[in-house]
Amino acid sequence: MENHREDLIVIAAGYPADMDRFLDANAGLRSRFGGTVEFADYDNAQLAAIFTAMAAGQGYRLAEDLTAALPGAMAALDRGRGFANGRSARGLLEGTIAAQSLRLAGPDVDLESVGDAELTLLTAADLPARG
């Protein structure tokens, strides 16, 4: 990096604690990066919007009860070490789609009577339980 500093741009990306460990791994590494840019985590409304956009991109519609429940579901996401912002919203969507599939394939459901509209509708009942 030092020998080509006029011709080279290096961008390192990661979560703050991980980046601190990376930059501290070598005595001179931190000084070779001119600055850092930190991005705040998405808020619950932004995560709900990401969930909604991803669902629409996959051909799903959200029932009103799910739309109303999403900010609370996002607030319930564990913000610990495994939290991944948009990836966490995607994980919740994937779990919701899986739960919807199980609901529609349940023993009390006549698959012949399930139409396209129901196949593409996600409801609050499909949100995975968080504990």
Your description of this structure?
The protein has 131 residues and is mainly alpha-helical. It has 5 helices and 2 strands, in the order ααβαααβ. Strands 1-2 form a two-stranded parallel ribbon. α2 packs across α3 (64-75) and α2 (44-57) packs across α4. It is elongated.
The main sheet comes to: 2 strands, parallel
**Helix content range of the residues, please?**
40-55%
Query: How many DSSP-defined strands?
Result: 2
Helix and strand content put the structural class at mainly alpha
Low-confidence stretches: none
What does the overall shape look like?
elongated
Share in β-strands: under 5%
Major sheet: arrangement of strands: 1-2
Number of H- or I-type helical stretches: 5
**What's the order of the H and E elements?**
HHEHHHE
Radius of gyration: 21 Å
Mean pLDDT: 90
Taking the alpha carbons of the first and last residues, their distance comes to: 46 Å
Reconstruct the topology from this structure.
Layout lengths: L15 H9 L19 H14 L3 E2 L1 H12 L10 H19 L11 H4 L1 E2 L9
Parallel strand pairs: 1-2
Give a brief description.
The protein is mainly alpha-helical. Helix content is 44%, strand content 3%.
Give a quick set of tags describing it:
mainly alpha, two-stranded parallel sheet, 2 strands, single chain, about 130 residues, 5 helices
